[in-house]
Amino acid sequence: MRPENYEPKHHPPSTEFELNFGPNHPGIEGNYALKVRLHGDTVVEARADAGYLHRGFEKLMEQRLWIQNIALVPRICVPDPSPMEVAYSMAVEQLCGLDVPERAQWLRVMQLEMSRITAHLFYFGGHAATTGMYSPMFWGVADRDLVLDLFEELTGGRVYCIYNMPGGVRRDIPEGFLERLSKLLDYLETRLPEYDNLFFTNHVLVKRARNTGSMTQQQALEWAVTGPNLRATGLNFDVRRDDPYLVYDQLEFDIPVEQGGDALARTLVRRNEMQQSIRILRQIIQQLPDIKGPIRAPIPNPLAWNVPAGDTYVRLESSKGELSWYVVSNGGQKPYRVHVRGPSAMHAVQVLENLSKGCRVEDVAQIMFSLDACPPEVDR
Question: For domain 55-378, which architecture applies?
Answer without folding.
Answer: Orthogonal Bundle (1.10)
